[in-house]
Amino acid sequence: MSYNTILITKKAAIATVTINRPKKLNALNKETIKELHNAFKDLEGDKEVKAIIVTGSGEKAFVAGADISEFANFSVKEGKKLAAKGQEILFDFIENLSTPVIAAVNGFALGGGLELAMSCHFRVASDNAKMGLPEVSLGVIPGYGGTQRLPQLVGKGRAMELIMTAGMISAEQAKSYGLVNHVTTLEELLPLCSKIANKISNNSSVAISYAIKAINAGFKNTVNGYEQEIKAFGACFGTNDFTEGTTAFLDKRKADFPGS
Ligand code: COA
């Protein structure tokens, strides 16, 4: 299969998926989300692939979020659909993949980028990485599972603060929060992920796929939270704050929220 926005490489039993829109800091547009879905589906069916690494192209960003230019004019209905479809075909899809997926966070992982990293089974970051969920600075909320997975990983209070402040944390802070498992240099990031992936590949893939299912099952009581997130995310698209937040980003100015 050939792709426009992602690259796939395979070495021994390890596949690497690289999101390849460096000029847009690898922001996730509709095409990238669809291509990622197809790639993961394909790799899951490839019995030679025992682990998958996901990373961003270039030295600056893993993924700087969902592509704001694509949804700035969306209605409430379109907003809800955006979140629901994205969760279904990419974020929940990766979380429930039977092949282990490691996020190699090589720079900015913001909004949908951090949500993508959080959907992966675990994360390794380079020391230049910066992570956050800045959606409320645009007048919207995380819509790709961020309100559910961030508190699962770092605890409710830290998630509340990160989401409310729209702030970014460093790789070291993310490690101290349990959001990433390891921090290394940018140069060593992919070698370290490959080393871990190789270790995984020596174990039973069947047993690992059952372990993924069992671990995920412990978090399934949050299913209504995901539905609530989709509803609330859609509702943001009917607010003046959302229009102002996204317009200000695209105009490259600071937002002045009307509060309605
Ligand atoms: N959606 C669409 N385009 C994006 C993007 C996003 N989420 N993030 C970055 N880009 C684009 C910029 O518009 C810019 O495009 P241009 O060169 O055509 O103008 C390009 O990527 C480079 O980004 P720029 O903002 O110039 O880089 P920077 O180094 O000054 O800032 C960030 C880096 C990550 C701090 C900044 O790009 C940013 O805040 N991005 C949005 C993050 C966000 O809110 N994500 C959540 C979305 S829900």
Oligomer: single chain
**Heterogens:** coenzyme A
Q: What's the number of domains?
A: 2
Instruction: State Rg.
Output: 17 Å
Which regions contain 5 or more consecutive residues with pLDDT less than 50? none
| Main β-sheet, spatial strand arrangement | 1-2-3-5-7-10
The count of β-strands is 10
The CATH H-level superfamily of the largest domain is: 2-enoyl-CoA Hydratase, Chain A, domain 1
Sketch the topology as an H/E string, one letter per element.
Answer: EEHEEHHEEHEEHHEHEHHHH
State the end-to-end distance: 46 Å
Number of helices: 11
Written overview of the protein:
With 260 residues, this protein is of the alpha/beta class. The chain has two domains: 6-201, 2-enoyl-CoA Hydratase, Chain A, domain 1 (Alpha-Beta Complex), CATH 3.90.226; 205-250. Helices cover 49% and strands 17% of the residues. The chain is built from eleven helices and ten strands. The chain has helices at 30-45, 68-71, 76-95, 112-119, 146-154, 156-165, 171-177, 186-201, 205-217, 223-236, 240-250; strands at 6-11, 14-19, 51-56, 61-63, 101-105, 108-110, 122-126, 130-132, 168-170, 182-184. The strands form two sheets. The chain has a six-stranded mixed β-sheet with strand order 1-2-3-5-7-10, sandwiched between helices. The radius of gyration is 17 Å and the shape is globular. The N and C termini lie far apart (46 Å). The model has no long low-confidence stretch (mean pLDDT 96). Bound molecules: coenzyme A. Residues 24-25, 27, 64-69, 108, 110-112, 134-135, 138 line the site of coenzyme A. The site of coenzyme A has 16 residues, from helix 2 and strand 6.
